[in-house]
Amino acid sequence: MALGHKAIIVGGGIIGCAIAERIRHRFSGVTLVESQSSLGQGASSAAIGGITPQSGDFCLGPVGALAQRSRELYPSWLARIRVESGVDVHVLGTGQLQVATDPGELRRLHGSMLPALTARGVDVVALDAAQVRRAEPALTGDVLGGLLLPDELALEPALLIDGLRAMLRRDPRVDLLLPAEVTEVWSDEHTAGVELRDGRRVFGDVVVVAAGHLSDRLLGFPPNCLFPVKGQAVEFAAPAAGGLRHQCYALIPVRGQEQGAYVVPRADGRVVAGVTYEKGLADTRPTRNGREAILYGVTTLVPQAADWRVVRHWAGIRPGSADGAPVIGYVDPHHRLVAATAHHGLGITLAPVTADLVSALVEDGPIDVQRSFELSLCDPRRFIRVPDSDRPGTARPSPTGRRNGQFFPSADRFPAQGGCA
């Protein structure tokens, strides 16, 4: 889209804000619509904040390369946020320790994960038990060894949102429309738009749906292609950040099953820990079972955590997809309606690269080979059928005016491409 056109972004979480920040220079106006009274109040506020392009469960496949490029975009992105907003987003840059407390897990880390990451050119260091304990004396003596991924980062999502919010509020090209609930999205040959709960319509040249797990209500994918994934986390007040220097992760054996324990120290002495993955649940109610599961994992990994004071326990809802990859791309034949959702537990990690890919889609001109590959990985057409003319990089008709388009019906807008049910 050439400068002078307008964009609408549905969803004011980390993904929507990152997209708005990236494309605001390409449009004369960007309207960011958020249903909450403030930006970043959904899954973004519930995230722990790990930027984990290689250690995350969803990064062991093709998503890992996408996440790694996003990690590489982070330093310049955070520097731009700091300069424009005055908000310094502190980054824990000491990497992540992924450790094992049983022989089977150690064999997986050293025998499978290490060579796989090394083959991809990832900086990873194998550690024995003594090396792990020297790196993190607070960890349990039951640790048998592990891996150090020195390039993994962590930050506080609330600070990142603060910086993005300040940037967007100061930019006269950006209109923050909140609280406002979008009930329909639509496009036609000439224009695109949204309808709000109060009956208002907002018109633009392109609409980006980045509404997290609520995106499916607007986009209407076949059943079970997109779904909510509830996650719970806990925050502790820990003296000197519990003595931890790294973010630490382990799979803890519990009655024949494995439970993840993830701990991230903050700069001011707090420690956050989690997380649960409760597929199909869309409520934000913290539960006793969730709290107990997290506390068991944390205290098993860091025994002194039993003395830490819990100051907060919360839950959020991530957007998931049937194959674990994000959904980023056009979902209409007019090249005006873009999906940007289904990031699972990688919303913070994938925010910069998602903004980059959406920007590449909505700009006029060809898309390079790398972005074309990444867009093919995230293509919504793996779940829905869009006319063949809808390909990443295909030229879109220039807007010639505005008129009311046809509102999309719900889940049966497009027949399933094989179906997800």
From TrEMBL:
InterPro entries to which the protein is assigned, alphabetical: FAD-dep_OxRdtase, FAD/NAD-bd_sf
Keywords tagged on the record: Oxidoreductase
PROSITE patterns noted in UniProt: PROKAR_LIPOPROTEIN
Region Disordered, residue ranges: 386-421
Domain FAD dependent oxidoreductase: 7-360
Gene3D superfamilies noted in UniProt: D-Amino Acid Oxidase, subunit A, domain 2, FAD/NAD(P)-binding domain
One Pfam family linked to the record: DAO
Classification via SUPFAM superfamilies: FAD-linked reductases, C-terminal domain, FAD/NAD(P)-binding domain
Protein name stated in the entry: Glycine oxidase ThiO
Lineage, broadest ranks: Bacteria, Bacillati, Actinomycetota, Actinomycetes, Streptosporangiales
Name of the gene encoding the protein in the UniProt record: thiO_2
